Amino acid sequence: MSRYSVRVRFGETDLMGIVHHATYLSYFEAGRVEYLRRRGIEYLEWATRGIHLPVVEARLRYKKTARFDELLLVESRLSKLTRVTVEFSYRILREAELVTEGHTLLACVDDAHVPKRIPPDVAAVLRGPELSPREEDRV
After folding, report:
1. Which of the residues 9, 53, 71, 139 could staple to 106 if both were Cys, CB 3.0 to 4.6 A apart?
2. 3-state secondary structure labels for all residues of the chain
3. Distance of CA 71 to the CA centre of its chain
């Protein structure tokens, strides 16, 4: 699991001052990219190898509201890895309170967007431990 802090920006809120529902997908993405970075990989490096991981499914459950300038913690965890898909689970917390939870399913495709098997070295990185935890990072 990786943890990543994000402070809610004004432009991420709606007219009621609450984080817009779609913004949580951006928080999930930031957590997912940081999950990879902390395991020693930059996503662009995989892209140059013709390895892409587009989101093919997303599910979110909203438990509480978040507002402008609150500090949130995004927890990202690899929950399932198959030959061609990767599933990440997320929890977004404000202090110890659960705000949102969900998952994304990503499919491994090549440059032509044709499904391809996840290479063994990529699978090893996805399953591996954090090499450089950086709790202080923020979006």
Report:
1. 53
2. CEEEEEECCHHHECCCCEECCCHHHHHHHHHHHHHHHCCCCCHHHHHHCCCECCEEEEEEEECCCCECCCEEEEEEEEEEECCCEEEEEEEEEECCEEEEEEEEEEECECCCCCECCCCHHHHHHHHCCCCCCCCCCEC
3. 17
pTM: 0.90
> What's the pLDDT score for residue 45?
86
Distance of CA 89 to the CA centre of its chain: 8
Tens digit of pLDDT for each residue in 14-26? 999 999 999 999 9
Amino acid at 105: L
